[in-house]
């Protein structure tokens, strides 16, 4: 019997090797080659372009973003939309202290923006570009990839009204009955928004928890009422 299984294994191995050998090689297009004139112009003009135009523009954009973040007491990672599935999963992985600090920064920034005020100067001396969400985003990517590969689970079906879809079978934004009201659940939300009346994944989970608690309470009340009726009849 062992010899039979060994021969069957050899047969399957040879068949697999034959398929692998005959499979087409993946085509990787090579980058287009530049002509001599273009290479010469690039080597002569690109340093000047980056030194006098693109470099100062990038530094100015960075300074403007840093000023905006420091004026409102925010971090750059606070500006990402919590309706995006990967970032929503990363927010669930945050420790309680980091999650509370992020929430307080967002609420403080929203309040200051509403009043057209800024933080005091002595509280603006910090680096707003520290990527504190980076390890949690990477862990969220690994989790979602593992779920998609092993379970056939898609991240846009994980929560209701998140990532531009409702979670009831629609795969892309615009394939549902709420397409006329996209801002209700984050489909048209801007990553620059700090807070807002959006239906987030945390709000959805909290709503489901409240509904489950209410249903359990109603069930217990019905059971107690039935027991009282049975006792009174006896």
Automatic annotation (TrEMBL):
Biological process per Gene Ontology, one example term: mitochondrial electron transport, ubiquinol to cytochrome c
Main location: mitochondrion
Subcellular location: Mitochondrion inner membrane
Keyword terms of this UniProt record: Electron transport, Membrane, Mitochondrion, Mitochondrion inner membrane, Respiratory chain, Transport
Record carries keyword Electron transport: yes
Topology of the protein relative to the lipid bilayer: Peripheral membrane protein
Keyword Membrane: yes
SUPFAM superfamilies assigned to the protein according to its UniProt record, in alphabetical order: 14 kDa protein of cytochrome bc1 complex (Ubiquinol-cytochrome c reductase)
Family: Belongs to the UQCRB/QCR7 family.
Protein name: Ubiquinol-cytochrome c reductase
């Amino acid at each position: 019997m062992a010899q039979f299984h060994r021969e069957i294994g050899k047969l399957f191995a040879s068949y697999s090797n034959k398929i692998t050998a005959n499979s087409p090689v993946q085509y990787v297009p090579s980058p287009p080659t530049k002509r001599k004139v273009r290479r010469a112009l690039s080597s002569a003009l690109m340093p000047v372009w980056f030194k006098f135009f693109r470099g100062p523009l990038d530094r100015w954009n960075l300074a403007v973003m840093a000023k905006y973040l420091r004026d409102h007491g925010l971090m750059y990672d606070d500006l990402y939309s919590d309706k995006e599935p990967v970032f929503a999963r990363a927010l669930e992985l945050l420790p309680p202290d980091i999650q509370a600090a992020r929430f307080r920064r967002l609420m403080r920034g929203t309040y200051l923006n509403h009043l057209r005020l800024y933080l005091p100067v002595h509280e603006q001396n910090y680096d707003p570009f520290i990527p504190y969400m980076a390890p949690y985003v990477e862990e969220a990517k690994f989790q979602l990839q593992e779920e998609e590969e092993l379970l056939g689970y898609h991240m846009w079906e994980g929560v209701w009204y998140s990532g531009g879809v409702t979670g009831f079978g629609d795969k892309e934004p615009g394939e549902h009955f709420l397409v006329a009201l996209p801002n209700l659940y984050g489909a048209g939300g801007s990553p620059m928004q700090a807070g807002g009346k959006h239906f987030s994944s945390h709000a959805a989970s909290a709503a489901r928890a409240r509904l489950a608690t209410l249903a359990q309470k109603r069930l217990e009340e019905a059971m107690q009422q039935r027991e009282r009726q049975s006792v009174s009849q006896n």
